[in-house]
Give the backbone structure.
Amino acid sequence: MHIDHSKLVELLVETSGIEKDKIETQLTELVDEIREAISEGEAYEVDGLGIFSGIGNNMIFMPSEDLATEINYKYVGMEAIKIDDAPEKPKPSKEKKVKEDDDDPFAGLLGDDEDEPQESDSSFELDEPDEEEPKLSEKKIH
Amino acid sequence: MTKEFLETLGIVIRDQIIMKNTVEVKGLGTFKPVHHNQRQEKRADGSNMVMPPKDTIEFTAEHKG
């Protein structure tokens, strides 16, 4: 949201209770004094707000210490943290690797018996059919 | 200028900056809130620091034409 001149005057009247005309007069007076000081190469300090000064043709503003602190009230207690002291991540050792293999729940289930000869269970013996030729009874015909 | 007026001006600008509003003072310039995120910074001695976030005021002077 942008607070323009008329809105600023309105807020100043609400907060201070001073009449609008007097606010506008004093605000104009303040601006003229600041510009005059800067044109003469001097800085102008407004208590509770900060310092206005000029560098070349530019006007710069440095907020007062109180104002700079107050607008950062949300971050009170937060300080710069040095992060170089973080512990190094340990390298995985070979011993650990072996242990991991031991914990493998599928170890030994697949492919571990490849080197061992396997007995073949696939030998089949064919059953020899019992071929009994039918016996013919011989009958003598007299 | 009265002391009461100057105090009130400081309070009003501070409150508006905290509310993330820009404040224009006619004939002088505009005060704008600027937020700086937390950042990592490498210092001259080689150490790494994590800097906390902060808000600052950016002032843009009004140029009379």
In short: The helical segments of chain B are 3-18. Chain B touches chain A at residues 1-2, 4-14, 16-29, 31, 33, 40-41, 47-57, 59, 61 (CB under 8 Å). The longest strand of chain B covers residues 29-36.
